[in-house]
Amino acid sequence: MIRRNEFLLYVVFGVLGTLIYFFTRFTTREVTTNVLLPVIVGQVVALLFAFFANKYIVFKNSHVGWRHSITQFFEFLLTRVGVFLLDLGIAYIFVEKYQRFWIKALHLKQLNYHHVFFANPLVSRYIGNAQLLNEFLFTILSQSLAAIINYVISKRVVFNIKQTHEPIHQRYEITR
User: Fold this and answer.
1) In its keyword annotation, does this UniProt entry include Membrane (predicted)?
2) pTM to 2 decimal places
3) What mean pLDDT value characterizes the chain?
4) Range of 10's domain?
């Protein structure tokens, strides 16, 4: 039952973190023409939210001291660097470098962006044209991959209750 509740909490706070990421990324996108800057800003804001939500609510790992919490934060940060690079890579390849190819391959220019759905101001700022829709679709892809990778790493490494009481140097000792 605990694992099911933990997973459910992870999904709920993961969705909330993803919404925070989307909002931050696409709000930042409105003030810059740079494709990668919104990814960076969105990742930083979502990362801070995810750490505190996972530590205190999802994995209920609040019983450790502040020194261990700092260690956990840096472990969390290091594990998220790979996901961050994956997100940047997807944004660069699918949105920056080969955007025209993907818009054509996915037939995104054939959609009627004047339709009432796309014309809605709430929707149009995120998917109101082929370029925005392309970016949105590949953001969903990168965030889906990120959710899976981050859950496994957070559960097995960063907030692993069995490892919580081990000194950090013992966790990473190399055996000969």
Assistant:
1) yes
2) 0.72
3) 87
4) 4-162
